[in-house]
Design a protein that fits this description.
This protein is an alpha/beta fold and 206 residues long. The protein contains 7 helices and 9 strands, in the order βββαββαβαααβαβαβ. The strands form 2 sheets. The protein has a 5-stranded parallel sheet with strand order 6-7-8-3-9, with helices on both faces.
């Protein structure tokens, strides 16, 4: 469970978020929508520990983010990240890209995960040898390597066509049904509608 309590954030004197409150439960698939500059990416960054709010609290399973001593360890254990660009390493094949996220993972675990994402045949391929949609699914696999409680995705389909975008969101739906919290910031209202809950950020308010 993730809970935001009176989250306010300023960039210098510009108010990006103003007293935002929300609660997201286990297995919930949430879309955050809003125009550019509305504050949705700021909210995503705060919820995912990448940005400290100017005011307010974020609570993750009864733990306040302010009380976490080693934030890097916390992220590794609990959080997966997916971005608009896949950030795969071009000179490593898919298997080795995934191992960077978790050096201790077995080949069997990798194969099981890739099969789950319907990309098991790509295990020895390099990023330059696969399509944009496949690269993004590999990025999703990488985010799942440590079996996170929550996955944050910031415009994950921004570089994909409509067919592959739909596949990615259907995959998010599947993961949420299995108990993972999915929080996605997107401009695409049709894709956002596939989520369980939609929040709109407008002028810094939810």
């Amino acid at each position: 469970m993730i809970k935001a309590v009176d989250i306010t954030h300023k960039y210098n004197n510009d108010l990006a978020l103003n007293r935002v409150n929300l609660e997201i439960k286990k297995g919930e698939f949430v879309s955050i929508i809003g125009e550019s500059g509305s504050g949705k990416s700021t909210l995503l960054s705060i919820l995912s520990t990448l940005l400290k709010p100017s005011e307010g609290d974020v609570i993750f399973n009864d733990t306040n983010y302010k009380e976490i001593e080693n934030i890097d360890t916390f992220r590794q254990t609990n959080i997966g990240f997916i971005f608009q660009f896949h950030y795969l390493i071009n000179y490593l094949n898919v298997k080795d890209n995934l191992k960077i996220a978790n050096e201790k993972v077995s080949e069997e675990e990798i194969n099981t995960l890739l099969e789950k994402l319907d990309i098991q045949e790509l295990v020895n391929k390099y990023p330059s040898e696969i399509s944009g949609g496949q690269r993004q699914r590999v990025a999703i696999a990488r985010a799942m390597m440590n079996k996170p409680t929550v996955i944050f995705a910031d415009e994950p389909t921004g570089n994909l066509d409509s067919k592959n975008s739909l596949k990615v969101f259907e995959l998010f739906k599947k993961l949420s049904n299995e108990g993972t919290i999915i929080i996605v910031a997107t401009h695409d209202l049709k894709l956002a509608a596939l989520a369980d809950t939609i929040y709109e950020v407008k002028d810094g308010q939810l």
